[in-house]
Amino acid sequence: MKQEWYEAKVKYVKTLDDGTEKKVTENYLVCGVTVSAVESRVIKELKSVISGEFSVEAVKRASFKEFFCVDGEKFFNCKVAFVSIAEDGTEKRQKSTMLVQADTFQDALDMLEEGMKGTMSDWEICSMSETSYKDVFN
Known about the structure:
This protein has two helices and eight strands, in the order ββαββββαββ. It is an alpha/beta fold.
């Protein structure tokens, strides 16, 4: 079995800077083989970070096709269209989602463009947005 990327939603009570408590749901990106293995990994990783009880509410396969991973605090969802010309001369666009780890939107854009260098087909960015991922367990 090959490893894939999964999204895990975790709920817990977080103590804020002012000392108040708030229920939060955070999303984590995890590399794993099965949903149960990913859930076990999340529990293991977060035991030492979260004080008190927490629950893994959902685990699902991530929807992106490519992950450009570098040092950075944020994660950006990038929708890219690969452009090709069909035999009848019409343009065809095949959309794909990619994830880029970077500190800023501009850094993410630069990283995406660098990662796409050498791509055989023409491509264009359809959209970029910051995700809610808190961390990656690779």
